[in-house]
Specification:
The protein has helices at about 5, 10-45, 80-85, 100-120, 125-145, 150-165, 175-200, 205-220, 225-245, 255-270, 270-275. The chain is mainly α and about 280 residues long. Helix 6 (about 150-165) packs parallel to helix 8. It is globular. The chain starts with a helix and ends with a helix.
Length: about 280
């Protein structure tokens, strides 16, 4: 078997996805904290007050620790999925429970990477689509936790979609540019229509940028299917959470994870099949 076919096979990409998923858990947890600290320091500087002098927090430092007892996670306690099972979902030091979300993120990323290998084949562009999927996983996790879609991720994703289209790796450049325009303006229009009608904000600006990024990667024809799919799934989940009292009063279900999920469905289903479902082909 040629080396390229081996390393870009669905199985190998899935194994790589497990490792990337472990890193995404760090990104989902730490990036909002890093951004919050940065905002506080900027505000303190503007106000001329003393800001937080606690040790710097980055994606790589300090080492991961148990939030309950501060136990430093050893390398063999950080093996994707396997360590969680070996530890029986508990800290080795204090026996505090470890959330199942960690292995779920790792498994989801592995599954997406494997699907990319199966969908795209053993081509270098598979790595590009794997990075696209990984970025959507990170954005979904952050938005679900914080209702925040950081510009630090959405804007690079948007520009990357246009660049890879310009290089001829994904879709025609015109489709990517108009996809970005249509994605942003569609939700921007909905936002202002809702706000002018009700006086309330129905979504954040991060949703505009995420849909623009999806348009840059998947094309303008996929904007409406993505929005329709995300709206239907989001409504079902929101109603289910409301009925089960999982949604606190005054809170809302973030839209970003459903946009990302619909974008992934469109990616793997393919434009022709999606348009066929809608009878637009």
């Amino acid at each position: 078997m040629p080396v390229q076919e081996l390393f870009l096979s669905p199985f190998v990409l899935a194994l790589f996805g497990l490792c990337v998923g472990s890193f995404l858990n760090v990104v989902i947890h730490r990036l909002p904290l890093i951004l919050e600290r940065g905002w506080k320091m900027e505000s303190a500087d503007l106000l001329g007050v003393v800001h937080d002098e606690s040790p710097a927090l980055t994606l790589s430092t300090p080492r991961s620790r148990c939030p309950s007892c501060g136990h430093a996670i050893r390398w063999y306690e950080n093996v994707p999925v396997a360590s969680w099972l070996w530890l029986r979902a508990r800290c080795s030091a204090c026996k505090a429970p470890i959330s199942a979300r960690y292995p779920l993120i790792e498994l989801a990323t592995a599954a997406l990477f494997g699907l990319v290998g199966w969908h795209v084949g053993a081509q270098p562009v598979a790595i590009v689509w794997c990075l696209f999927c990984a970025t959507l996983v990170a954005l979904s996790g952050i938005d679900w936790d914080t209702t925040l879609l950081p510009d630090n991720i959405t804007l690079p994703l948007l520009w990357a979609g246009i660049v890879v289209a310009a290089l001829g790796w994904t879709i025609p450049l015109g489709d990517a540019v108009w996809g970005a325009v249509a994605g942003y303006l569609s939700l921007w229009s909905v936002y202002w229509a809702f706000k002018l009608t009700t006086g309330k904000e129905g979504m954040g600006f991060g949703d505009f940028k995420l849909l623009a990024a999806l348009g840059a990667w998947l094309g303008w024809k996929m904007i409406l299917p993505i929005v329709l799919g995300a709206s239907i799934i989001g409504a079902i989940v929101g109603i289910g959470m409301k009925m089960s009292s999982a949604l606190r009063e005054g809170r809302y279900v973030p839209f970003g994870p459903f946009l990302a999920g619909a974008g992934l469905v469109v990616l793997f289903a393919g434009q022709a099949r999606v348009l066929g479902w809608l009878r637009w082909a």
